[in-house]
Amino acid sequence: MSTLSDARVVRTRQALRQAMTALAEELPLDAITVRAIAARADVGYATFFRHYADKEALLADVADRLTQEFLVRVRPLLEQRDRRGAARSLCGFVQEHLALHRALIAGGSGETVRAEMLRTVMGTLAGARTAQPAGALPDLVLRHLVAAILNLLAWWLNHPDEADAEAMAEVIDRLVLTPVGALRAEPPAGL
Questions:
Q1: Helix (H, G, I), strand (E, B) or coil at 100
Q2: 48, 83, 117, 185: least CB-packed within 10 angstroms?
Q3: Would you say 20 and 38 are in contact if contact means Cβ atoms under 8 Å apart?
Q4: Contact, 157 vs 91, CB < 8 A?
Q5: Global pTM?
Q6: pLDDT bracket for residue 101 (50, 70, 90)
Q7: Right CATH number for 55-185 from 1.10.357, 1.10.3470, 1.10.3230, 1.10.3210?
Q8: Which residues have a Cβ under 8 Å from the Cβ of 106 and sit 6 or more positions away?
Q9: What is the structure's pLDDT at 16?
Q10: Which of 181, 190, 148 is nearest to 78 (CA)?
Q11: Angle between the 178-185 and 137-158 helix axes, to the nearest 10 degrees?
């Protein structure tokens, strides 16, 4: 019975995430209601609350899944130290899910979602480390890297006519990835 129940929970959560994603591509985030999400997912209104406390909790789950999907995609490029390729992959990923990223990163809840994405990426990357780094510098650098990229993406999503994906990838590489790479190679004294 629990396997059947678990499969149902997985399907319902997937349906709710898909509904939220679809609605985020059609409407501003503040116009999306729990009733609309439940209707789109073809689940009862009360069922929504068995899975998520509120719309923001569902949104955090969607953002978390999106972040995890991106990290799986970009990890090989980062391991090869292909910073420009990683930046291109990031911008391509954002374009593939443009409306959703616009809602998540640049929308009215952007600051909250960016903070959640920062927490998720920090946790994922910290968990992937083979050895615990010494000192504060590695965590500080990682926090800067992720926050800077999220802020640049928010700017791009709010100013889509200012740069295409290739130009934005170059900006991310030159403003964030290359300097961080240099900092990792030559850490400042005292850190």
A1: helix
A2: 185
A3: no
A4: no
A5: 0.74
A6: confident
A7: 1.10.357
A8: 153, 154, 157, 158
A9: 96
A10: 181
A11: 170
